[in-house]
């Protein structure tokens, strides 16, 4: 099982869109996929047409009872989506209180990792969506994955947010525990605008080592897909934006070197 975390301390940069699009593509390649929503705003659930108020439970329950969780309790909060093979571990508004209640306790950063380890027989891939806030949830998401994906909007102000995110990763790395490798993915790229072109050349200049070699273009199909509560690959097939995510997926799988890589690459 491969675990990827999609993170940026800025909102509106394409995190949730990246989670759902990569998840949709992995399912099309025959993978069993779990999406984990760690954002108290539950945007991932809303995207998929799943109202957090109507869920049987949420990630909050698992954190709250983390000391003596049974396998049944964990599996009971996972819900299907309207795409076969794609499941969701939903968020809840109450997640926003975790920093206050659990934030300072030792070992708090590894709860999600241990929950996911107990689900490894059920999934080939797990994609974790993050809130744009550095806190106990983001720390858990970063500690639970093998690969960090940082979407960054190709716009000047967004680059400041990126610097903050990279500093966070460096700071966590200094804390003793190794931080997984990260890849920076330029999103919402519009080649007709000077803003996009300038931001991209700035990214190439400032982050040459971690920058993905391509971009995710602006594509209205992403918004249409979210209105239809479907991942873009399932909703729109092979549009420009989906093709770009497909290339990104190939890149991520080539970096993984795990079981899921071989199976997804061969389509089985
Ligand atoms: P985040 O999770 O970082 O807050 P979202 O994925 O929710 O960002 O994206 C913010 C908005 O931008 C959403 O309305 C989404 O549909 C739209 N969006 C994201 N990526 C693209 C894209 N490549 N092209 C066009 N619209 C996009
Ligand atoms: Mg989001």
Largest sheet entry = 7 strands, mixed
Quote the CATH topology: Rossmann fold
Count of individual domains: 1
Unreliable sequence segments: none
CATH structural architecture? 3-Layer(aba) Sandwich
Structural class: alpha/beta
Give helix and strand order, one letter per element, not per position: EHEHHHEEHHEHEHEHHHHH
- What characteristic shape results from the CA principal axes? globular
**Estimated radius of gyration:** 17 Å
The hetero molecules present are: adenosine-5'-diphosphate, magnesium ion
Total of DSSP H or I helical runs spanning 4+ residues: 13
Classify the beta-strand content into a percent band: 5-15%
Q: Strand order of the main beta sheet, please? A: 3-4-2-5-1-6-7
The CATH homologous superfamily is termed: P-loop containing nucleotide triphosphate hydrolases
* Estimated helix fraction: 40-55%
Total beta strands: 7
Arithmetic mean of pLDDT = 93
Protein name: Cobyrinic acid ac-diamide synthase
Domain AAA: 1-172
Describe this structure in words.
This protein has one domain: Rossmann fold (3-Layer(aba) Sandwich), CATH 3.40.50. The chain is an alpha/beta fold and 268 residues long. It has 13 helices and seven strands. It has helices at residues 15-28, 43-47, 59-64, 71-76, 98-102, 111-117, 136-143, 156-174, 194-206, 221-227, 232-236, 240-256, 259-266; strands at 2-6, 33-37, 79-80, 86-89, 125-129, 147-153, 182-187. α8 (156-174) links the parallel β6 (147-153) and β7 (182-187). It has a seven-stranded mixed sheet with strand order 3-4-2-5-1-6-7, with helices on both faces. The protein binds adenosine-5'-diphosphate and magnesium ion (MG). The site of adenosine-5'-diphosphate has 17 residues, from α1 and α10. Residues 11-17, 43, 187-188, 216, 218-219, 222-223, 226, 241 line the site of adenosine-5'-diphosphate (ADP).
């Amino acid at each position: 099982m491969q675990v990827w975390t999609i993170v940026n301390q800025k909102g509106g940069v394409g995190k949730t869109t990246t989670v759902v699009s990569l998840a949709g593509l992995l399912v099309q390649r025959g993978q069993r996929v779990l999406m984990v929503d760690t954002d108290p705003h539950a945007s991932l659930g809303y995207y998929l047409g799943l109202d957090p108020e109507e869920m049987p439970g949420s990630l909050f329950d698992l954190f709250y009872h983390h000391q003596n969780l049974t396998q049944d309790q964990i599996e009971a909060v996972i819900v299907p989506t309207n795409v076969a093979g794609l499941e969701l571990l939903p968020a809840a508004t109450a997640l926003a209180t975790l920093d206050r209640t659990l934030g300072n306790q030792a070992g708090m950063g590894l709860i999600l990792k241990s929950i996911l380890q107990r689900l490894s027989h059920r999934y080939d891939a797990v994609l974790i969506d993050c809130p744009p806030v550095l806190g106990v949830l983001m720390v858990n998401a970063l500690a639970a994955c093998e690969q960090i994906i940082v979407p960054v909007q190709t716009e000047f102000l967004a680059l400041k947010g990126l610097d903050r995110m990279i500093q966070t990763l460096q700071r966590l790395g200094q804390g003793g525990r190794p931080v997984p490798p990260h890849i920076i993915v330029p999103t919402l790229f519009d080649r007709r605008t000077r803003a996009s072109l300038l931001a991209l050349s700035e990214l190439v200049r400032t982050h040459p080592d971690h920058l993905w070699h391509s971009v995710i273009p602006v594509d209205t199909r992403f918004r249409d897909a979210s209105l239809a509560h479907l991942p873009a690959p399932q909703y729109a097939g092979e549009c420009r934006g989906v093709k770009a995510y497909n290339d990104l997926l190939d890149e991520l799988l080539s970096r993984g070197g795990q079981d899921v890589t071989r199976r997804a690459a061969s389509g089985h």
